[in-house]
Amino acid sequence: MKPRIALSMIVRNAEADLPRCLASVTGVVDEMVVADTGSSDATCQVAAQHGARVLQIPWADDFAQARNQALAAVDADWVLVLDADEQLGPEAPVRIPELVVREDVKGYLVTIRNYVPSLQQRVWDRPAKPNDSLLETAKTYPAYVEHENVRLFRRDPEIYFVGRVHETVGRRISEIGGALPRADFCIHHFGMAASPETNARKNRFYRELGRRKVQEMPLDAQAHFELGVVEFDNFHHYEEALGCFSRACELKPSMGLSWLFAALAALCLERYAAALQFIRKAQAQGYTSPLVLETEGDAHYHLGEFAEARTFYSRALEAGPGSAFLESKHALAELRCGETEVGLRRLHWAVQAERDAAELHDRLITGLVFAGRLAEAAEAAEAKLALAEPDERSFLRAASIWAQLGDWPRARQNVAAGLERFPQSEGLQSALAEIVNSSPIPKYPRQNIVFHH
């Protein structure tokens, strides 16, 4: 007899996304259980119209608890878990029936494509890839980042979700000795491309749940790591993040990813020698991703060890697909090693590849100033104002370089343009007063830039 499959979901105020999600499982599942945690819109009606059995469950700030309540209502042999802002790939109706007939498997790791608005985004240490999806609803996104999670598993009383946030059944399957091979279908996730306001609200909520998870699971390295990532990526609280990563490393020294993120946090805190020690700990655990190599390059660069930095940037470029951002780091290291023309060519290429990336423009300006090409640096600084979203410091920087060249009209022009955008800027107002009085504007500093990830 063919195994039966159930869709199990928890939802809240998902009427806009739910129809697309439920339509994607048509012909795949034999039952749908949708647990509503307190919607104020038409979510429940939409679910019922699509043939789902709708449950009302109280929300207790615990994703695992809510998912387990939904799981308890399932009658089928296998469980497929989706969120409302996800949908199955078109290959799933063929692949999933082939997977659930295997008697030696408790569950499957499923690839999840998280669509993002920029190639510069990542999920943990995983970089974004150019979007090549044929799925109609995904074509508008420029990039995606992949990760894996257990989303298809047997209904078994020993298999349940663990964790107040970032909940998973994978831990339970591993604890009972179950195999977790990779599935050959994909889940498409659109939630990461939500509005900045929505993502900011989610981040605050997940941070609070993450803190409570750490209190409840103080000896769990993964819980500390997850909270550290939220503090690092979403709030830029690098000291707090470093504390979380360090604790994760203490609890599980073999967790190379925690050592990598400890290094990234140390870099942001300008503790470059410590970053180098952390990254070598990651490598000692066999963790040698392109980001590890790039991070070691960053540590060497900021320690003034430019030849070593160039070596590690080269290795990172060889190990992965590379990016304009990594190319620009490599270019600055080349400049510092005396390869002026090669470095500048790479910096110009990087800016052309990502014309609206302010950080790349800053690196080009830094490289030109270091090479003593102030006129070109001034033109590059003005180009940044036109091509990338500028802040008030960008106008000051352009004006400063023109002032060094003695071109006071151009300096004044850039300050005036900045004041049109930022009329309350005390720095720009002060610079204008200095120009009017024919006083030199402070020189553009020849300093190492800070690499942000």
CATH architecture field of the largest domain: Alpha Horseshoe
Strand percentage lies at: 5-15%
The end-to-end span amounts to: 51 Å
Which structural class should the secondary elements be placed in? alpha/beta
Order of helices and strands: EHEHEHEEHEEEEEHEHHHHHHHHHHHHHH
The CATH class of the largest domain: Mainly Alpha
Number of strands: 11
What integer value in Å does the Rg equal? 26 Å
Can you summarize the main beta sheet? 9 strands, mixed
Shape: elongated
Mean pLDDT over the full residue set: 94
Oligomeric description of these chains: single chain
CATH homologous superfamily annotation of the largest domain: Tetratricopeptide repeat domain
What does the model show?
There is one protein chain. Helix content is 51%, strand content 13%. It is elongated and about 85 Å long. It has two domains: 5-194, Alpha-Beta Complex (Spore Coat Polysaccharide Biosynthesis Protein SpsA, Chain A); 201-436, Alpha Horseshoe (Serine Threonine Protein Phosphatase 5, Tetratricopeptide repeat), CATH 1.25.40.10. It has helices at 18-23, 43-49, 63-72, 92-99, 170-175, 196-216, 221-234, 238-251, 256-268, 272-284, 290-302, 306-319, 324-336, 340-353, 358-370, 374-387, 392-404, 408-421, 426-436, and strands at 5-11, 31-36, 53-56, 78-81, 86-88, 107-116, 122-123, 126-127, 129-130, 143-154, 182-189. With 453 residues, it is α/β, with parallel strands linked by helices. It has 19 helices and eleven strands.
